[in-house]
Amino acid sequence: MTRLLVTGGAGFIGANFVRSALERGYDVDVLDALTYAGNTANLEGLDAELHIGDIGDEALVDTLTRRVDTVVHFAAESHNDNSLTDPSPFVRTNVNGTFTLLEASRRHDTRFHHVSTDEVFGDLALDDPNRFTEDTPYNPSSPYSATKAASDHLVRAWVRSFGLRATISNCSNNYGPFQHVEKFIPRQITNLLDGRVPKLYGTGEQVRDWIHVDDHNAAVLTILERGRIGETYNIGADNDHVSNKQVIELICELMGADGYEHVADRPGHDLRYAMDSSKLRRELGWEPQFTDTDSGMREGLEQTIRWYRDNESWWRPQKDAVEQAYAERGQ
Ligand code: NAD
Ligand code: DAU
What is the CATH number of the domain that holds 83? Predict the structure, then answer.
């Protein structure tokens, strides 16, 4: 039996991961600071031990790292728009926090998996036929993506300099249950459930390579079990042709609504992300289960819409404050 320490396990992807890891037979400790993005309700009914604390707390991190076989590192400040308002927690958590975890893992020779993002590669033109591969040079745009890029570099340096047994995954945009209402898809779904108008930044021509959170987490488990130490794996579900405008229109269609409004664009807004995940598919045999726009995203979105409809008590407490903050920025 392998014991995992899942950092950020009370957040969106982390909590879904804890569920999948428990189902797969792992023992799970969670370390989470319960920032605005963490929620104990995400772990309700799950047989995981929650330790409330900061990944920058050296003593706590040392104690927890010592008792597990593997650290799976999800904890981060994760929202681009917030990083434009105040980058400081992004540097603290994403860079310094990752450093603290790496040092503890080095001391105890703990296997480490670092969860990162496609945003470290920057963006592509809409008509660029290329996708990001594991060898694409880093070119992050926002304080969020710059701090994630920094953390990826730290992990690679710890592998090379200290022989840390680590892997990295870079994944595209996730959607699914338990995602905070500040993010694009849950924001629009809950806007419609709340009688508000969906909000599209700028023209909405931007493209995100959407993947269902369960597909992302299945890939992380695959890398934990079969990935080669020191390697990086891109994760994506080949949705790099779907614009934000198309996503919002699909949400409106699925929810029987007919209108959305264009609001102020995000400064420095990345245009297009596109992941080449062929290395992960070829070497480790992973395949996404929710695939292509017509069936995959439709099916995944229907499931996600149902979840937000059925779980209003989960998202309701955050909704007004999130919308107030967006309104102050003209969004
Ligand atoms: P999230 O914001 O929903 O959750 C982050 C979690 O980390 C929260 O539970 C929060 O309380 C916790 N946390 C924050 N700072 C902490 C600290 N200092 N110490 C301990 N815990 C802390 O984020 P998410 O969307 O679930 O993303 C999880 C990871 O996946 C991040 O590393 C992110 O960069 C990466 N990622 C996200 C996406 C996406 O589409 N959301 C895509 C690719 C990669
Ligand atoms: O690509 C992976 C990244 O995806 C992760 O690393 C980040 O943690 C995650 O937050 C996400 O980043 P994005 O900035 O792409 O996601 P967000 O949900 O904020 O926005 C998705 C797109 O939708 C983006 O082009 C901005 C746009 N948008 C967003 C909001 C909140 C809107 O048009 N309207 C909105 O109301």
Answer: 3.40.50.720
CB 83 within 8 A of CB 125: no
Residue 287, domain member (yes or no): no
- Does residue 248 lie in a domain region? no
- b/e map 251-266, b = 16+ CB within 10 Å: bbebbebeebeebeeb
Which amino acid residue places its CA nearest to atom 44 of ligand 1? 117
Q: Which two tokens stand for residue 144?
A: 């969020």
**What residues line ligand 1, using a CB cutoff of 6 Å?**
7-8, 10-14, 31-35, 37-38, 54-56, 74-78, 93, 97, 115, 117, 148, 171, 173-174, 180
Write the DSSP string, 104-123: HHHHHT-EEEEEEEGGGG--
User: Taking a C-beta distance cutoff of 8 angstroms, is the pair 183, 79 a contact?
Assistant: yes
Tokens of 75: 């904890």
Domain that holds residue 167: 3-174+211-235
Q: Is residue 318 a part of any domain in this protein? A: no
Nearest residue by C-alpha to atom 2 in ligand 2: 173
Enzyme catalytic residues: 118-119, 144
Q: What is the pLDDT along the chain (331 residues), one digit of tens a residue?
A: 699 999 999 999 999 999 999 999 999 999 999 999 999 999 999 999 999 999 999 999 999 999 999 999 999 999 999 999 999 999 999 999 999 999 999 999 999 999 999 999 999 999 999 999 999 999 999 999 999 999 999 999 999 999 999 999 999 999 999 999 999 999 999 999 999 999 999 999 999 999 999 999 999 999 999 999 999 999 999 999 899 999 999 999 999 998 999 999 999 999 999 999 999 999 999 999 998 656 568 999 999 999 999 999 999 999 999 999 999 999 9
Residue of 173, 189, 215 best suited for mutating to test ligand 2, as the one with most atoms within 8 Å of CB: 173
Bridge partners, residue 51, by sequence:
31
How many domains, the chain?
A: 1
**Which ligand neighbours the alpha carbon of 183 most closely?**
2
The one-letter amino acid at 299: E
Ligand 1 atom nearest 13 alpha carbon: 26
| Residue from 61, 78, 181 whose mutation best tests the ligand 1 pocket (most atoms within 8 A of CB) | 78
| Ligand 1 atom closest to 54 (CA) | 19
